[in-house]
Amino acid sequence: EKGAYEFYMLKEIDEQPAVMRTLEQKYFDEAGNILIDQDLRDAINAADRLYIVAAGTSYHAGLVGKELFEKIAGVPTEVHVASEFAYNMPLLSAKPFFIFLTQSGETADSREVLVNVNKLGYPSLTITNVPNSTLSREASYTLLLHAGPEIAVASTKAYTGQIAVEAILAKAMGQDKDLEVAKNFDLTGELTKVANGMQALVDEKGQVEKLAADVLGTTRNAFYIGRGIDYDVALEAALKLKEVSYVQTEGFASGELKHGTIALIEKGTPVIAIITDPKTAAHTRSNVQEVVARGANVISIAAEGLATDKDQIVLPEVHPLLTPLVSVVSGQLLAYYTSKQRGYDVDKPRNLAKSVTVE
Ligand code: F6R
C-alpha cells in the first residue's frame, strides 16, 4: 500500500535500501556463501559468452551487468535490446548462455527471443521480480529480485535489484573459476555500504526536489552525460526523466557530445553530468566546461572522493563497480520531482503500460 506516499514511484525509490538488504539475506548464508544453485553456476561457467537480452530499464541494467560479468567473472558479455535481437540475431559464439532481465517476466519482445533460444537448445536464465512469470517458466533457470511488487510504471527498485543480483551471480561465477578479483570482492560488505549510501540519498531528497524546480522546472529538453558505467546510468536516468516528466532527454557519452550533439546546447539547456570514475572524471569535467561555455545549466553528480564545492549532488562512496546503485537514485528523484512539480500522475505516465505484452 502507498500509505503516506502520494505516489508509488517515491515509495519504491525509498524502498531500495531495504531491497539491497533483502538480497544480501536471500543470496548469502551466515558464512558468506552464495546461495545460487551449483547447477546454474556450472551451466553459466560452461559458456564462452553471455548474451543479456532485455528491454527499456532492464536493458540498462544489462549494460551495467556487462561490466560486472566481464570484470568480476571474466566472461565476455554482450547486451541486446530484445526487439532487435528477436529478428536480427548476431552471429553467436560457440557456447552462448542467455540472460533475460525482466521485472515483470512477461515482456513479449524478450519472450520472443527466449522462444527462439529454446528452439536452438541454448541454456538460459531469467532474472525477474515475478516468480512463475512466463519468462521464468520458460527459461532453464530463474533468479528472483525479491524487490516486492513494483506498481509505478517507471521502474526503479527493479533496476537496482537487477544490478545487485548480477553482481552476486558474477561473484559466484568468478569464485568458481578461482578468480582473485571475485574472491576478494567483499560483496556483502559492499552491498551494506550501498544500502547505507542509498539511504543517505533518499534522506536528502529535499535537495533534489529543489534542484528539479530550479533546473528542470520548465525546460523542454535535457541531457545526461557520463562515461563508462556513468554513461550506462545516464541512459537510465534519461529514460526515467523522459517517461514521467515528458522532458525530451538524451543520455550521452560525454566524449561523444562534441561530435555533433553539442549543437543542441543553448542558453539554459539542462545538462546533468554523472562523475564516479577517477579514470575519466577529468575528461567529463572538461566536457562540462564545454557545455557551460555554451550556456548550459549544469547539475553535476559526483562521487564523494571526486567531488568539488561546485557539485550539486555528492554521492556516498561505494565500490567502483556498484556506483550505478547510488548514482541512479539521484536520477530517479530528479525525474520524480520534475513530474510531480508539473502536476502529472507520476505513477501512470501517458501512453505507457507496466508490462508490455505485445511486440
Ligand atoms: C521504464 C520501464 C520499461 C521496462 C521495460 C521492460 O521505467 O519500466 O522500460 O523496463 O518495459 O520491462 P520488464 O523489465 O518487465 O521486461
TrEMBL record:
It is an enzyme of class 2 (transferase). It catalyses: D-fructose 6-phosphate + L-glutamine = D-glucosamine 6-phosphate + L-glutamate. Its EC number is 2.6.1.16. One of its GO terms (biological process) is fructose 6-phosphate metabolic process. One of its GO terms (cellular component) is cytosol. Keywords: Aminotransferase, Cytoplasm, Glutamine amidotransferase, Repeat, Transferase. Its main location: cytoplasm. GO terms for molecular function: carbohydrate derivative binding; glutamine-fructose-6-phosphate transaminase (isomerizing) activity. It is found in: Cytoplasm. Residues 40-178, 212-349 form the SIS domain. It comes from the Bacteria. The active site is at 354 (for fru-6p isomerization activity). Catalyzes the first step in hexosamine metabolism, converting fructose-6P into glucosamine-6P using glutamine as a nitrogen source. Homodimer. This is Glutamine--fructose-6-phosphate aminotransferase [isomerizing]. It comes from Ligilactobacillus equi DPC 6820. The lineage of its organism: Bacteria, Bacillati, Bacillota, Bacilli, Lactobacillales. The chain holds residues 252 to 610 of 610 of the full protein.
